[in-house]
Amino acid sequence: MKELDGAKKIYQSIKAPPRLAEVISTSCKDYKKKKHWYKAALCTAATLCILFVGLLNCSSVFAQSISTIPVLGNLARVFTFTQYSVEDSTRQISVKQPQVTNTGNAALEERINKEINAKVKGAIAQAEERTAADKKAFVETGGNPNDFIPAIVDVNYEVKCSNEKMLSFVLNTTQTQANAFTDQTFYNIDLKSGKELTLTDMLGKDYKKLVDESVRRQIKERLAKDANLMYFEGNEGFSGINSKQKFYVNKAGNVVVVFAKYEIAPGVMGIQEFEIVK
Questions:
Q1: What's the pLDDT score for residue 25?
Q2: pTM across the whole model
Q3: How far apart are the C-alpha atoms of 4 and 32, rounded to whole Å?
Q4: Burial class of 212 by CB neighbour count within 10 A (0 to 12, 13 to 18, 19+)
Q5: Residues 181, 225: one domain?
Q6: 148 lies in which domain range?
Q7: Whole-angstrom Cα distance, residue 220 to residue 194?
Q8: Rounded mean pLDDT of 48-60?
Q9: Is residue 222 domain-shared with residue 188, that is, in the same domain?
Q10: Which residues lie below 8 Å from residue 57, measured CB to CB, with a gap of 6+?
Q11: Whether 77 contacts 67, CB under 8 Å
């Protein structure tokens, strides 16, 4: 106890340095200033980011103007033109719709953007019409309206390749009710000519032979590695690509041919992709 009292007296006898209060006060003020500056910087950055995305979404003129800036060029070529979601008792709709700009071909951009808009509107209208009819039949046959499963429509896009030479992206439109089905539309654009790329452009005049052989080889390799995989055989199996074969260009610059669900394999296998290395 005496030791504690002694220590207390020693502590109380210690005099603080003359400038201690001044140093503490200055440090606190500096901290508050830095903290205020940090918050202000974050708010400013966030605001600029929101304004930038908003302008991209609302103004194709703005998108075209910033696309000339090297750092931002690729971002401006495909941007989210509109994004929204709707949910009620009969539908759950989520849309993230792209728009294309700065390809060097205004007519091509207009055609693609109109096509994308028509596809999105068509998919939503089709789903709403089908769902309304299904719900009516469900209720008329004694079903509880609260038990009705709404239609789900999801629209989004993915940029597969974007560089100084080409732009490749896909529009995905998925409709789900009892089953799910995804419709994919691929756009592959030569940024130098402003035209859509074909398999001939990418792989040469003998592209069909090259792709067919590669797909058959890859199917065999996949089946050999995994006995649980399944592909259709005979007349229902892969018999070669068609003149409207879907494909995209990946980041490595290679063609990837795509087959829809049920096209060459059972539904459980989903969408099938095969990279073609020339």
A1: 52
A2: 0.72
A3: 38
A4: middle
A5: no
A6: 76-193
A7: 38
A8: 45
A9: no
A10: 79, 80, 81, 82, 83
A11: yes
